[in-house]
Amino acid sequence: MPIPEAAGMTRRERYEQKQRLKSLIIAAASTICVVAALVIIVPMTPGWEKVQKSFFNGEVLAKTFPKLLDAFMVNVMIFAWSAPAIAILGLLIALARDAKSPALFPLRIFGAAFTDVFRGVPVILTVYLIGFGIPGLGLPRPWNSPFIWGSLALVLTYSAYVAEIFRAGIDSVHPSQRAAALSLGLSERQVMRDVVLPQAIRNVVPSQMNMLIALQKDVSLLSFIGPVEIFRQAGVFKSLFANFTPYVGAAIIFLIVTIPATRYADYLMARQMRERS
Amino acid sequence: MHKIELHKVVKRFGQNTVCDGVDLTVEKNQMVCLIGASGAGKSTLLRCINLLEPIEDGEIFLDGEDISIPGLNPQRVRAKIGMVFQNFNLFPHMTAYENAILAPRRVHGLSKLQLQSEIEALFERFELADRMHNYPDQLSGGQQQRVAIVRALAMKPEVMLFDEITSALDPQLVGDVLDVLLKLKSQGMTMVLATHEMGFARQAADKVCFLKDGKIIEEGTSKQVFDAPKKSETKAFLARAFK
Ligand SMILES: Nc1ncnc2c1ncn2[C@@H]1O[C@H](COP(=O)(O)OP(=O)(O)O)[C@@H](O)[C@H]1O
Ligand SMILES: [Mg+2]
What we know:
The complex is a heterodimer of chains A (about 280) and B (about 240). Chain A is mostly helical. Chain A has two domains: about 5-45; about 55-275, MetI-like (MetI-like fold). Chain A is built from ten helices and no strands. Chain A has helices at about 10-40, 50-55, 60-95, 105-120, 125-135, 145-170, 175-185, 190-220, 230-240, 245-275. The mean pLDDT of chain A is about 90. Chain B is about 40% helix and about 25% strand. Chain B has nine helices and ten strands. Chain B has helices at about 40-50, 75-80, 95-110, 110-125, 140-155, 170-185, 200-205, 220-225, 230-240, and strands spanning about 5-15, 15-25, 30-35, 55-60, 65, 80-85, 160-165, 190-195, 205-210, 215-220. In chain B, strand 7, helix 6 (about 170-185) and strand 8 (about 190-195) form a beta-alpha-beta unit. The radius of gyration of chain B is 18 Å and the shape is globular. The termini of chain B are far apart. In chain B, about 45% of the residues are buried. The interface between A and B is medium-sized, with 17 and 27 residues. The complex binds adenosine-5'-diphosphate (ADP) and magnesium ion.
């Protein structure tokens, strides 16, 4: 079958265009089949009506969604101040762990202990221990706020992971870059700041994006120590309406944020792979 | 006084002795070429001179000053000795211009403004003015290597070390870079080159040293070494190189 746009194309391009069209048709057809099967079969299951009522209740969703969005702003807020703190602390820990001068040896030990401890403890435990423990000292307002200490728990845990990623990034910069910079008379410190770190940071942007996405989700752990963020708000609505739909609403809100972010991180990762090859 | 003097320099990597008691003198304004098979220790010797590698034994003098004293701060020495590498090693996150201005700013503490005309003049001198604000990956290999030379010259070094700087280039780009070396020589730069460009060494070198297994086996003017080599190893190497 001659394809109209085929004029002026090489044989190879015509072939590839045909293949693309074929794949597209097959993919579309198979997707339609699967979706149709789900839409037809799932509602035929015996429990579907009950599940639909308690998880996919349009009325409840409409009533709770705006409030859930409001509560999500609390997540965004906690995220917004934690993320820069994590970036800074993570970088400092990474540098501390790679410190060479003997005077900084204690710093190295501290960095190693820090990453071991905070990567070794489940996030929720750190959130509990710090989030309940420190306000338990009876500090005056606002220093007894679970926002502060809960965020600190996230910052500490995530810094440990982020520091390790930065270290991997520092290692990924080829030693010849260091040699070239040193040969110009730069000091070790200048080499790190001007030559190694900028490249290291650029190399780990995709991995750090994934940490940001994970952080955005883990902000919800703070619900266990007080702040009424989206997960907690959904719980309140669940009790109020005796219905699980608010949780589905919360999940939808998360996905609206995390799916584009994940796609973007994947795109950055793929681009970096291409650049390296 | 010699510009550079190496006295019985020994460099080991573990059990592997890579420089095995090397004696070498480089006079002011001289171009010295190190030749020899790959693995002979040419790169390592250059790296030792620039204090990128600590030496196990022997001394290295720059203008009569022992720069190989253990514990000596190498920065001041390296600022006086420029080095250019086989793989360019430009900083990929900076433009050519930023590559060149970084070290003079940091090490000499000069401002961008103070340096601007001088750095721009360097790029012009090496016909790179129109490429100054490109990133390394937007430049050809030959241009990148010339930028690397400009970057080293921006520090106003007294000596330049070149480590096989044309080996990673496409053959048609080699000439441009060699022309730069000739230009530097005519301006009186003191230079030490590790090179596989035998034709160039023969034509341009004031002194040629043949290295084998970390030793300088034979040295002399380019006429002596290329036209009348004395040692059988040198003869064998040159026969292969000019085959
Ligand atoms: N960083 C290093 N660690 C261990 N061995 C090295 C290192 N650099 C060079 N060598 C060894 O030193 C010898 C000389 O290498 P090199 O100086 O690069 O020779 P050339 O430049 O003449 O080819 C080789 O055997 C090489 O394997
Ligand atoms: Mg070499």
